């Protein structure tokens, strides 16, 4: 869902992206060696349910792990004022494609990033997630892109420059 733009409100654009790739084989080895503690610690129950019902679970787990890492890369360096756990960042399937579901400290860190970048209204923000995997190449990858509308008046009040 794209953010709605109120024509009467001076707005700028905040864009941040993160990308990550993961070895499917490595994730498969971790699943085999540390199961079930690894799955329970790193993935949400919805992610586990989805991945376990696929023909090749390791590639789907790997893509979700890459999405979690990509999401962390979109955060401001100072935003995670508390340590994040991977299970607080979930990837869910929707009719429109994969989406992130954030809980606890991950949700708080994302909110801190938005506020730090003058995106004070989360409804003026869209998060896009793209996943891919290739078993033959032994790689899964994810890209997370955040686009938000900033309130230029907030930036001016804070002493920043508004675009003309």
Which characteristics define this entry?
alpha+beta; 164 residues; fatty acid biosynthesis; lipid biosynthesis; metal-binding; 6 helices
Description:
By secondary structure, the protein is of the alpha+beta class. 38% of the residues lie in helices and 29% in strands. Strand 2 and strand 3 form a beta hairpin. The radius of gyration is 18 Å and the shape is elongated. 29% of the residues are buried. The mean pLDDT is 86.
Outline the low-pLDDT stretches: none
Shape field: elongated
Strand content: 25-35%
Order the strands across the largest sheet as they lie in space.
1-5-4
Give the topology.
Blueprint: E1 11-23, H1 24-34, H2 37-42, H3 45-52, H4 57-74, E2 89-94, E3 97-102, H5 104-116, E4 125-134, E5 139-151, H6 152-157
Antiparallel strand pairs: 1-5, 2-3, 4-5
Helix pairs in contact: 1-4, 3-4
At a glance:
It comes from Natronoglomus mannanivorans. By secondary structure, the chain is of the alpha+beta class.
């Amino acid at each position: 869902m794209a953010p709605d733009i109120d024509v009467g409100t001076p707005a700028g654009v905040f864009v941040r992206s993160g990308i990550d790739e993961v070895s499917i084989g490595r994730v498969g080895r971790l699943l085999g060696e540390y199961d079930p503690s690894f799955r329970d610690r790193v993935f949400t129950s919805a992610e586990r349910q989805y991945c376990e019902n696929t023909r090749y679970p390791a590639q789907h787990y790997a893509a979700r792990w890459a999405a979690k890492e990509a999401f962390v890369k979109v955060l401001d360096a100072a935003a995670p004022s508390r340590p994040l756990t991977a299970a607080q960042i979930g990837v869910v399937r929707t009719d429109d494609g994969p989406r992130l579901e954030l809980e606890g400290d991950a949700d708080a860190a994302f909110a801190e990033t938005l506020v730090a970048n003058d995106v004070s209204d989360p409804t003026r923000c869209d998060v896009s997630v793209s996943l891919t995997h290739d078993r033959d190449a032994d790689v899964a990858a994810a890209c997370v892109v955040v686009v938000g509308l900033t309130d230029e008046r907030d930036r001016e009040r804070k002493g920043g420059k508004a675009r003309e």
